[in-house]
């Protein structure tokens, strides 16, 4: 047979490997036609050294063939523009064994070569047709049950397959987080949506196993296991020996993973159902019973190139390609099934043709159905918002008794206290939220006993104990992955990222993963969370760029994400109530950006004036989502638009300027940086003669750019508008920081210039 392939290839370099693979199967099954074996009943165990029954084998082979024909269909119909995705599962169909060995309620986060897994898992829930569901997904049909036509993802609500994005390895942290959440639920008395002894499954390729995100998840799982913390996650590495065009060094996966502390390693032959099935079952069962992180090394082969557009003969030796095709797991399955009397060759050939037709027919029918054809439809699940319900939820308070117990008596309730500064009020708001939401968790680096580096969560660990307020290992990707896992299991995570600067090295866990889940699952899955981050500049004590990072560009650019930034304590409390309500009601993901330099600010104009202390909002008082705060609403000479540190800074500058002029200056505190309340900005600006944006962020990408756009697009471009903004530079240590960050004096000068009709000096 090999020589036939060779001659075929020499005739045509571009020979279609999918056709060859397809023909191989029929040829092998036809060749098996001469074999006469008595037919076995489903319960028979045809193989002495395997627990696989004839029934297991029959269904697994069918699942494998469904997967194969979905691939073949995609190759054909892509050319006709009927489907839009050709990364296939061919050679990986052995992953159907993982689905068979696991339960339909074990949450799964899958590799893109999971056609076999999906077909097999579909058997676990009545009424699911994997061919039709996949056809809708391949066709990007609006009725695609996974993503509503937004992406070709392996995902299903009834099958507990949470949709994955194309970013390899990015799903491992949340798979681990889900495993930890399954265990955490019992500790906090939370009812899980799935059985208590579930495991979290995630699969990925051999090249992806090297990604730092994957390595971080392995390490975090091992870190948990090392301390005896249960973490029932099954890492399935589908090892086909190559990643696009780069070979994985021989034996790399086995050598690298077989002896890791805290990680149980299993190997299974994914090319042969008979040889592999018991090993796969052993891995799944061990993970479930031991509750320990388990690594299943599943041998696979990649057939038909990386994707439909990939001519692998251009970078891969022909012998390699041919050897892969000879190891096709479906050939092995056919031989096993026919020899065991599970199918006759004729039955298998007929099944093969039936499935071919079924896949083609389904795809052609799916192509007739409507696709997403309006922006409204595309965007619908991205950022759901139910204003009334959110307001009601934000106003809902825990019982007075529960609050009194947490705060240490009625007299200690925060609203009974004199005005306080930001740090205390965030702390008290968090106590209130932990009382209100028994499923809420606070976690991050140093947040427990120490209460975080700024002691914002101090005391919470004592009140709510370690199951609800706990330290994590030092890895922001893991922290945000854990948050997604807890949210997947119905909890309300409030993770802390120690500094805004360190969000950036884990940004994809929000950008690519958490914030995209509602979109790519057509709002069937939600992972609500409120991520607290300390950030922004002007710190007196702890200097330098990384503790004064003022870049909000990355979070502001994440579709659907909410970013709130309070400048004072009462606003922080209201905002946290609203953000948690948004999370609970609409599943939203948000960042609560805490200005470090204002944590302890007590005074506004003079030392001792207590001008930046605020009263804790009354129980039941909520802040409307996106509402701004206006200072000096009657003033009309000039409008300052700012947020965070810029608010008290501008108030001081305004007082200085007003002292020597008749101008009356209004100030608008944005409070919400994403989305911006463009209407409120424009309305206030309409009433004032000139506008100054005070943006502590950077010249390029700071929120001020978006405010400027809102003003111009709101028809206010004709008014004098200027910006006081940070420089495109990292923040230096010590007093030199003032050269980069805007200061009060800069605001005074800009205000005077604007009032005098001079163009303020640009940065
Ligand atoms: C973070 C990231 N980097 C790069 C890519 C582009 N990419 C897609 S698949 C792939 C190779 C993955 O190989 P492997 O993990 O072995 O899986 P296989 O395709 O072989 O099953 C690459 C580099 C990506 N999707 N995500
Ligand atoms: Mg690979």
List all distinct small molecules, including ions and cofactors, that are bound in this structure: thiamine diphosphate, magnesium ion
Number of strands: 19
What fraction of the residues are assigned to beta strands by DSSP?
5-15%
Strand order of the largest sheet: 9-8-10-11-13-12-17
Chain-averaged pLDDT: 95
First-last Cα distance: 72 Å
What kind of sheet is the major sheet? 7 strands, mixed
- Tally of helical segments: 29
Helix proportion of residues, in percent?
40-55%
Q: What would you report as the Rg, rounded to the nearest angstrom?
A: 30 Å
Low-confidence stretches: 8-13
What structural class is derived from the secondary structure elements?
alpha/beta
| Shape field | elongated
Short structural description:
This protein is an alpha/beta fold and 763 residues long. Helices cover 42% and strands 12% of the residues. The chain has 29 helices and 19 strands.
Keywords:
seven-stranded mixed β-sheet; 763 residues; binds magnesium ion; binds thiamine diphosphate; elongated
Give a description of the structure:
- The strands form 4 sheets. The protein has a 7-stranded mixed beta sheet, sandwiched between helices.
- It is built from 29 helices and 19 strands.
- It is an alpha/beta fold and 763 residues long.
- Magnesium ion is lined by residues 205-207, 240, 242-243.
């Amino acid at each position: 047979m090999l020589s036939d392939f060779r001659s075929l290839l020499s005739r045509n370099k571009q020979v279609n490997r999918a056709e060859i693979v397809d023909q191989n199967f029929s040829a092998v099954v036809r060749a098996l036609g001469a074999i006469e074996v008595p037919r076995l009943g489903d319960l028979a165990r045809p193989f002495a050294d395997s627990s696989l029954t004839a029934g297991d084998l029959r269904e697994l082979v069918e699942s494998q063939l469904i997967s194969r024909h979905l691939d073949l269909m995609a190759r054909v119909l892509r050319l006709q523009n009927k489907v839009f995705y050709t990364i296939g599962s061919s050679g990986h169909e052995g992953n159907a064994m993982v689905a068979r060995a696991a339960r339909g309620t074990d949450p799964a986060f899958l590799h893109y070569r999971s056609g076999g897994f999906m077909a097999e898992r579909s058997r676990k829930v009545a009424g699911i047709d994997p061919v039709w569901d996949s056809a809708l997904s391949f066709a990007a049909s609006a009725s695609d049950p996974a993503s509503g036509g937004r992406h070709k993802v392996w995902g299903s609500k009834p099958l507990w397959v949470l949709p994955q994005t194309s970013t390899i390895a990015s799903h491992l942290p949340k798979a681990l987080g889900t495993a930890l959440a399954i265990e955490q639920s019992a500790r906090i008395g939370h009812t899980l949506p799935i059985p208590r002894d579930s495991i979290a499954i995630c699969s990925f390729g051999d090249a992806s196993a090297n990604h730092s995100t994957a390595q971080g998840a392995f390490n975090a799982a091992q870190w948990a296991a090392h301390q005896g913390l249960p973490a029932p996650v099954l890492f399935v590495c589908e090892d086909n020996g190559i990643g696009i065009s780069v070979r994985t060094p021989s034996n790399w996966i086995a050598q690298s993973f077989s002896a890791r502390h805290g990680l149980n390693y299993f190997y299974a032959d994914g090319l042969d159902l008979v040889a592999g099935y018991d090993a796969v079952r052993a891995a799944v069962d061990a993970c479930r019973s031991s509750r320990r992180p388990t690594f299943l090394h599943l041998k696979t082969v990649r057939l038909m190139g990386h994707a439909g557009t990939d001519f692998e003969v251009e970078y891969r030796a022909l012998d390699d390609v041919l050897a892969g095709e000879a190891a096709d797991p479906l050939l092995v399955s056919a031989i096993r099934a026919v020899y065991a009397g599970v199918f006759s060759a004729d039955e298998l050939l007929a099944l093969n043709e039936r499935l071919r037709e079924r896949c083609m027919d389904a795809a052609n029918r799916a192509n007739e159905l409507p696709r997403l054809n309006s922006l409204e439809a595309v965007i619908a699940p991205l950022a759901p918002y139910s204003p009334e319900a959110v307001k009601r939820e934000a106003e809902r308070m825990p019982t007075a008794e529960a609050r009194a117990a947490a705060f240490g008596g009625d007299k200690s309730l925060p609203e009974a206290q004199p005005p306080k500064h930001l740090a205390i009020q965030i702390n008290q708001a968090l106590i209130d939220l932990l009382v209100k939401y028994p499923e809420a968790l606070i976690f991050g680096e140093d947040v427990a006993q120490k209460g975080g580096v700024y002691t914002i969560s101090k005391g919470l660990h004592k009140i709510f104990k370690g199951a609800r307020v706990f330290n994590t290992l030092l890895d922001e990707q893991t922290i945000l992955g854990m948050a997604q896992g807890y949210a997947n299991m119905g909890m309300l995570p409030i993770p802390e990222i120690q500094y805004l600067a360190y969000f950036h090295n884990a940004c994809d866990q929000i950008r690519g993963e958490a914030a995209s889940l509602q979109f790519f699952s057509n709002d069937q899955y939600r992972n609500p969370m409120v991520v607290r981050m300390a950030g922004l500049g002007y710190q007196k004590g702890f200097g330098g760029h990384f503790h004064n990072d003022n870049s909000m560009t990355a979070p502001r650019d994440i579709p659907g994400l909410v970013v709130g930034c309070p400048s004072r304590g009462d606003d922080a409390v209201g905002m946290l109530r609203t953000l948690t309500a948004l999370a609970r009601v609409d599943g939203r993901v948000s960042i609560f950006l805490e200005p470090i330099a204002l944590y302890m600010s007590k005074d506004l104009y003079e030392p001792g004036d207590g001008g930046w202390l605020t009263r804790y909002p009354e129980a039941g008082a909520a802040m409307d989502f996106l509402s701004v705060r206006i200072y000096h609403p009657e003033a009309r000479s000039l409008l300052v638009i700012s947020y965070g540190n810029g608010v008290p800074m501008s108030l001081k500058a305004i007082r200085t300027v007003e002292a020597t002029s008749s101008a009356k200056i209004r100030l608008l505190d944005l409070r919400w940086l994403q989305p911006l309340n463009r209407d409120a900005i424009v309305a206030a600006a309409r009433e004032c003669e000139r506008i100054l944006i005070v943006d502590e962020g950077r010249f390029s990408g700071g929120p001020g750019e978006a405010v400027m756009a809102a003003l111009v697009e709101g028809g206010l471009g004709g008014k004098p508008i200027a910006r006081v903004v940070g420089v495109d530079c990292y923040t230096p240590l010590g007093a030199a920081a003032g050269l980069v960050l805007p200061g009060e004096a800069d605001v005074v000068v800009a205000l005077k210039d604007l009032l005098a009709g001079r163009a303020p000096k640009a940065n």
